[in-house]
Amino acid sequence: MLRDTGTQRPKLRRYEVSYLSPDGEVVQKRHIAPALPIFEDAFCAFTRGSLVETDRGPMAIEDLLPGDMVVTHDGEVQQVLWKGSLLLIPGQPDSRGRTHPLTRIMADTFGMQKPLSGVIAGPSARILATPVHLRHLAAGGQLLTPAHEFQDGMNVVETLPPTPVELFHLCLRRHSLIRIDGLQFETYHPGINALRMLGQSLRSLYLGLFAHIDSIGDFGPLLLPRAGDGEIDAITA
């Protein structure tokens, strides 16, 4: 179990959060928390300028606020409850030697206007699609796959900018797919086993990032199975 004691303390990172208060006001807060994958993944899906389909048309993710309505995969609209962002340098290794590569997806890679003009996805972005080498995991069904799994050196490529990049993620009332420049990306969900390896103090710190939930179960079920690290993060435990 990963505990927040001992000599190997992770680097700290600044996380920016905005959410809806009970009376409908947008509240903005800054958190200082460890630069651990479970924390960073909640903030690292979409780059500045990513165009999210809303009920008022495409909107840059940096302009989107809690309370705005986004169009989901089923044609319905859902309210944004939470938005997180952070600044990081993708090409700079952290204290554990990890970099945070972005994935550039060229226009029409997944079909006509998919994406429309090109997308740069963050390290935690997942797309509704299955690459050939992961079809054995999908078993003929649909799969949410990390964007980097599609890198082929031509239409989908890794990029490691040496300067700071602002990254974002969104929470809706339930795990959903939203359309960004013609591609369907998942909204944030930590996964069913996310907190299993965290000690109590880190668990509380993580949950404190999300004012709209009280426990991990409040994220609800996963919409679809997800690929990650060669395994399936299933809908049910």
Automatic annotation (TrEMBL):
SUPFAM superfamilies the record matches: Hedgehog/intein (Hint) domain
InterPro entries found in the cross-reference section? Hedgehog/Intein_dom, Hint_dom_sf
- Which superkingdom heads the taxonomic lineage of this protein's source? Bacteria
The UniProt record lists the Hedgehog/Intein (Hint) domain at 44-191
Pfam families the record matches = Hint_2
State the name under which the record lists this protein.
Hedgehog/Intein (Hint) domain-containing protein
Question: Species name for this entry?
Answer: Ruegeria marisrubri
